[in-house]
Amino acid sequence: MPITTAIVLPNLAYLGAASNYLEEIYEVLGPLALFDGFTPEEHSILCDYMECYAADAGVTIFSEGEQGDFMMLVLTGSVNVIKHDKDSKEKVVSEVGPGGFLGEMSLVDGQARFASCVATVPTDVAILHRRDLAGMVSGQPQVGVKVLLLLLQLVTRRLRDATTRMLPTIESNWI
Amino acid sequence: MPITTAIVLPNLAYLGAASNYLEEIYEVLGPLALFDGFTPEEHSILCDYMECYAADAGVTIFSEGEQGDFMMLVLTGSVNVIKHDKDSKEKVVSEVGPGGFLGEMSLVDGQARFASCVATVPTDVAILHRRDLAGMVSGQPQVGVKVLLLLLQLVTRRLRDATTRMLPTIESNWI
């Protein structure tokens, strides 16, 4: 069943159901290779299970270490991904613009956020909550399967990047 | 439709359909948290889409850099995961025993194998090919969804490990 209760994100302004922003979201998702194979109807069903929020510049969307159970797609604006080092100094590890996904690890495993996400300019995001992913998989399995495949490809791509970047560390330990 | 043509893995001996080894596979998968929520019937359907192979000690199951489109579950024995460093010297990066999964990145993205897998003792594996995963998702969607979720959790766990291990590298670049 599509979303009946919006999740509360205290730092963000609730914009309403993603189905009110079908075209804007399609414009962002459409060019992504990951999104290949979604028909306009399936796109519309996916949007039935997402919600849109706006973050002002400087707003922390979620914080490193806190529990999380949703991911987001950046629609407009820009988000800095920030880690704290051993001395609690902040470091921007990446910058994510429209079409970028954030927070998918916690969506899948429900564990703590690996990094913080901070909007650097006014930013709109579409959010997919774990509860609504489960609802989509059971209520609209043909779309649910496509979304699971999209997530699987996304996480696998991140894993390939991470293991490739990790290589020098492994190698330096070999000596 | 369940498997009709076995894939050819030249270094391995074909043992037959995984459905001939239902109990052995359940014994290995049953204790895994990832496998939680599979009924015996769903387990049996999953096995309809997998095949079993045996590798002698010393046999390379697949090699770093080659194209791949299957993953495997180790049933018995042990497999070394080996990377080559810049000077082409081999290094064992992990050792995987019964219940361990290998090769899931290439199953998902069809890209080159990140590392080589070599059996250190006589080893039996159950193999899931990308073609058969697709067949399961369309032919047995309720099991297909569970397998996609299992894979998503597996890849996410690996990503969390990799990003955590990668942290010192990132931090050393900050200075």
Describe the structure.
The structure is a homodimer of 175-residue chains. Chain A has 175 residues and is of the alpha+beta class. The first copy, chain A, has a single domain (13-164), classed as Jelly Rolls. The first copy, chain A, is 38% helix and 27% strand. Chain A has 5 helices and 9 strands; from the N terminus they run βααββββββαββαα. In chain A, the strands form 2 sheets. A 5-stranded antiparallel sheet of chain A has the order 1-2-9-4-7. The model of chain A has no long low-confidence stretch (mean pLDDT 91). The A-B interface holds A 83, 85-86, 89, 91, 93, 104-105, 108-109, 111, 114, 137, 141-142, 144-145, 148-149, 151-153, 155-160, 162-163, 165-171, 174 and B 83, 85-86, 89, 91, 93, 104-105, 108-109, 111, 114, 137, 141-142, 144-145, 148-149, 151-153, 155-160, 162-163, 165-171, 174.
